[in-house]
Amino acid sequence: MTPLDGALWLIRHGFAVSPCDHPELNRCAGLHKTCDGSRGKHPAVAFTRGWTLDERKVHETFGRGLRNPAVSVGACSGPGGVQLLVVDSDRPGAIEDVAGARGEQWSTTMRVWTAKGHHDYLWAPSSLKLGNGLGSLQGQFDGDVRAGNAYVIGPGALHATGVVYELEDPERPPVMAPSWLLRALLTKPQRPMRQSSYPRPESRSLQGLVKFVADSTQGQRNSRLFWAACRAAEADVDDAPAVLLDAAVHVGLAEAEARSTIASAFRTVGVSA
Q1: What gap in Å lies between CA 171 and CA 209, rounded to an integer?
Q2: 178 located within any domain
């Protein structure tokens, strides 16, 4: 599936499409002034209003040059006006693990395989105010959610690693999001990261927090970094963002992803990173 194939499949199934950067371009096509290195993911137009469902426009945009297709999540609606919710697992089976820990079974739904994991497409009632927050899943789910003012890279897109985003089953539509997931997303956590199951460092000094991040295994790295960054922000530890960033990159996280996680943690605590 090429980017054009993916974009055409999306609009023919009712998903609003907008163009993003393509990693084979000599320069990033994103709207930003400075690229952070995450090639292939930056919007080439304002995705909240530059999306389309017009096949002719898709041919013009994706047929004349290298662009990755993205889904403008907030512009998509399903049967009866339901809104789109995309669950982005940073590793295969991450959302299934969350469901299993809650005694639930994850429903089979439209899935797009990504470079690291998968995007699961779901419908949710339009009356719910969903966004990009994880709610009470913060620290329990190795991934993100996207709803409302958001976008996700679509099938047919080329990742910088060479992986092509691929539909698991082109005939499988999104299903309604389970009630337990919606409740979790709408529930504000009492304390960031308190419900995760891994052990806490004995020391909350910067050295202890760095060791906590450095001891992460795959599937824990992002959530442990978030927890450590929250604790560093609370304690106002000098040079914490830079030191935690080094530890996260050393343990295998992409620099751009680690920077985003640390910044999110500091915002959660109410401190500027």
Answers
A1: 46
A2: yes
Cα 57 to Cα 18, 47, 52, 115, 151: the distances in Å are: 10, 15, 7, 28, 19
Tokens at 203, concatenated: 């020391």
Q: Which residue has the tokens 């949710």?
A: 124
What is d(CA 229, CA 66) in angstroms, rounded to the nearest whole number? 37
Nearest residue to 199 via CA among 181, 216, 180: 216
Q: Are residues 178 and 214 in the same domain?
A: no
Instruction: Burial-class residue 80 by CB neighbours within 10 Å (0-12, 13-18, 19+).
Output: exposed
Taking the C-alpha atoms of residue 120 and residue 270, their distance in angstroms, rounded to an integer, is 31
Could you tell me where the DSSP H helices lie in the chain?
3-12, 55-63, 94-101, 179-186, 206-214, 221-235, 240-250, 255-269
* Helix, strand, or coil (residue 93): coil
Backbone angles phi, psi at 111, to 5 degrees: -135, 135
Dig out the tokens for 179 from the structure: 């009630």
Q: Kindly state whether residues 144 and 239 are assigned to the same domain.
A: no
pTM of the predicted protein model: 0.70
- Cβ atoms of residues 109 and 172 within 8 Å: yes
CB 69 within 8 A of CB 13: no
Q: Is 252 left (phi over 0), alpha (psi -120 to 50) or beta?
A: left
Does residue 198 lie in a domain region?
no
pLDDT mean for each 10 residues of the chain (273 residues): 95 96 91 80 91 95 90 95 96 94 95 96 96 89 92 95 96 97 87 45 67 82 86 76 88 85 80 59
